[in-house]
Specification:
By secondary structure, this protein is an alpha/beta fold. The chain is built from 11 helices and 14 strands. It folds into 2 domains: 62 residues, Alpha-Beta Plaits; 251 residues, Aldolase class I (TIM Barrel, Alpha-Beta Barrel). The longest helix is centred in the C-terminal third of the chain and has 17 residues. It is elongated. Bound molecules: phosphoenolpyruvate and manganese (II) ion (MN).
Length: 341
């Protein structure tokens, strides 16, 4: 349980709370994150209930286990978090477009993608150099060489670079090069990695786990936030369903619910959510009008030759067509799209 204290708690109210806690036998630990107004209970042998804690003066709310995403919760932080990185604003009025290949394969491939992203009004060039592949025999990414290509091409086109960190071992390398660090679905609950990401300062794009609830997703974000890094972007990328005809099932209702539950930006990735390129544009349009702060898409100049996720890659021309649609749709939901950086 976490006690969220009233920021205006008086010294005597705090003293009274501390002696109440000591009398109950509860042990507490300091919160090391951004907020100073939290008391984290590490044990509560007296079985004091949330209601009893909440009745103490100076306690705003006692939050029970499973709901302890106090840094992520809109309840305690009503205004949207806007992440500003290299001239882009994520979570602000602009609908953000991030696109690129699943994996960085070559300079020519990245060039073609960057040209398409930039022409379509995108801000971020995505691309993995450390790839989480289902089979150990599949292409695993170019590693450091991929990061180098990605950085050069992104800079040439005035785009931000986003790349996945697969392991704590690679964190310093990727964080030294990329502007935004991606945590993939399979790592959403890699808690040591999340803690390490919380102790560095680059923004983190956290993808929803393959079968994670919204609460688990927000608690994963909480691992990063509570360590002091407030720049977390959430990404809905589909969840596993009973239906094998789609790679995943895009959960747009969760986008709406997450925007209510949290102040953090929420992007939608319709590429992994569907696994089929024909479904990507319709789902991207739906995401844009249901309240997503932006889109994350896989694009490839020659999908048939892609070393990973070819079936879900759209072509540069598709990205351009989507961009025309977003120019029309963004104002419908009070957003801008494709304004000069
Ligand atoms: C990716 O973005 O290429 C990726 C591996 O996504 P996810 O973690 O959502 O499967
Ligand atoms: Mn992919």
């Amino acid at each position: 349980m976490i006690l969220v204290l009233d920021p205006a708690i008086t010294p005597s109210q705090r003293e009274a709370l501390d002696s109440f806690l000591a009398g109950s036998g509860a042990t507490v630990r300091e919160n090391r994150g951004g907020r100073g107004d939290l008391v984290v209970l590490t044990s509560n042998p007296g079985g004091v209930t949330a209601e009893e804690f909440q009745a103490r003066s100076g306690v705003l709310k006692a939050v029970s286990a499973g709901q302890e995403f106090v840094h992520a919760a809109r309840e305690f932080h009503p205004e949207n978090t806007v992440i500003r990185v290299g001239g882009a604003e994520i979570g602000g009025k602009e609908l953000l477009l991030a696109a690129g290949p699943c994996a960085v394969e070559s300079e020519a491939q990245m060039e073609a993608c960057a040209r398409a992203v930039s022409a379509a009004g995108g801000r971020i060039l995505r691309g993995g150099s450390f790839k989480p592949r289902t089979s150990p025999y599949s292409f695993q990414g170019l590693g450091a060489e991929g990061l180098r290509i990605h950085r050069e091409v992104a800079d040439r086109h005035g785009l931000l670079m986003m790349s996945e960190v697969l392991d704590r071992e690679d964190l310093a390398l990727v964080a030294g090069v990329a502007d935004i660090l991606q945590v993939g679905s399979r790592n959403m609950q890699n808690f040591p990695l999340l803690k390490a990401l919380g102790r560095q300062s680059k923004p983190v794009l956290l993808k929803r786990g393959l079968a994670s609830t919204r609460e688990e997703f927000l608690l994963a974000a909480e691992y990063i936030l509570s360590e002091g890094n407030g720049q977390v972007i959430l990404c809905e990328r589909g969840i596993r369903s009973f239906d094998p005809s789609l790679r995943n099932s895009l959960d747009l209702a969760s986008v709406v619910l997450l925007k209510e539950m949290t102040h953090l930006p929420v992007l939608v990735d319709p590429s992994h959510a569907t696994g089929r390129h024909r479904l990507v544009l319709p789902m991207a349009r739906a995401a844009a009008v249901c309240g997503a702060d932006g889109l994350l898409l896989e694009v490839h100049p020659e999908p048939a030759k892609a070393l990973s996720d070819g079936p879900q890659a759209i072509l540069p021309a598709d990205l351009m067509a989507l961009s025309e649609d977003l120019r029309v749709l963004a104002p419908v939901v009070g957003r801008t799209f494709g304004a000069p950086a």
